[in-house]
Amino acid sequence: MRKPMIAGNWKLHKTLEESSQLAAELVQQLSTINDRDIVIAPVFTALASVSKKITNSPIQLAAQNCYPAETGAFTGEVSPALLGDAGCHYIISGHSERRQLLNETNQFINQKVSATINAGLGAILCIGETLHERETHQMLEVLTSQIKEGLAGISTTQMTRVVIAYEPVWAIGTGVTAGDEQAQEAHAFIRGLLQGLYSQEVAEATRILYGGSVKPNNVDGLMAQTDIDGALVGGASLKAEDFIRIVKFES
Ligand SMILES: O=C[C@H](O)COP(=O)(O)O
Q1: Distance separating alpha carbons of residues 86 and 51, to the nearest angstrom
Q2: Is the distance from the beta carbon of residue 172 to the nearest atom of ligand 1 less than 6 Å?
Q3: Which atom of ligand 1 is nearest to the CA of 11?
Q4: CB-ligand 1 contact for 176 (6 Å cutoff)
Q5: Residues 212, 202: Cα–Cα separation, whole Å
Q6: Distance from residue 112's CA to the centre of ligand 1 (Å)
Q7: What residues does 164 pair with on adjacent strands?
Q8: 235 CB less than 6 Å from ligand 1?
Q9: Quick one: which of 51, 71, 125, 144 has the fewest CB in 10 Å?
Q10: Based on C-alpha coordinates, what's the Rg of the chain?
Q11: What is the pLDDT of residues 180-208, one digit of tens each?
């Protein structure tokens, strides 16, 4: 049985004060929830202060990115170990915004996933096709290479620390969500890939989150799908009321 996970990716939003305030509201409203994992990913500068706010609450902290090195001359970068030191439990890698805006490759993302796991943290690996790739029937091929290359060298044991987030690029921040069945179809395909790469056991144990315009009014339908184990929420995670409703999905 996979424990659902609802993760809020705050992207480049919120000051220190706003981040602490939102974290405090979430702690107050979600303190009794233990049947699903709740994760929030503030900007780097707010990680340490948000970490303090969520101490002794069920909410866990994630970073939105990392650099795959332990230490060294890497100006402006942050290692997984330092993110763990700041209170992070998870690191997001492979978000489509970074793939597109910063030209991140599957190989580089794979290094981040590996470094994250080696630092003892959980890796949230984002994958997803663009509209052009979907319309030109390249979706399955794209998802296959993102999974195969993104997880290269990751062992069966290490897979216990991996969460996949399927985020069709055309659904991110657009208000257009993949239909429940459309999302389920992609998730089932991804689970099949994991079975082929690893085993049925790994495929059944790995959580696959859906991301792309998840809102209070569509989360229940998505979460009712067999292979959807949670959500990676962008815009709606910035408002306490909306994120709380999403965390409290009913399916
Ligand atoms: O990381 C989150 C995704 O990019 C989804 O963002 P969104 O909920 O604003 O569409």
Answers
A1: 7
A2: yes
A3: 1
A4: no
A5: 25
A6: 20
A7: 125, 208
A8: yes
A9: 71
A10: 17
A11: 999 999 999 999 999 999 999 999 999 99
Interval between CA 228 and ligand 1 midpoint (Å): 16
Q: Which residue has its alpha carbon closest to ligand 1 atom 7?
A: 234
Digit-coded pLDDT (tens) for 79-116:
999 999 999 999 999 999 999 999 999 999 999 999 99
Tokens of 65: 């990115």
Domain of 127, CATH number, reads 3.20.20.70
Q: Tell me, what DSSP letter sits at residue 97?
A: H
56/200 Cα distance (integer angstroms):
35
Residue 47 sits in which domain range? 5-247
Number of domains in the chain: 1
Nearest to 171 by CA among 235, 224, 99, 220: 235
Q: How far apart are CA 242 and CA 221, in angstroms?
A: 16
Token output for 211: 């991301």
CB 134 within 8 Å of CB 170: yes
Lookup: tokens for 71: 């230490």
Q: What is the pTM of this model?
A: 0.98
Total Cβ atoms within 10 A of residue 205: 16
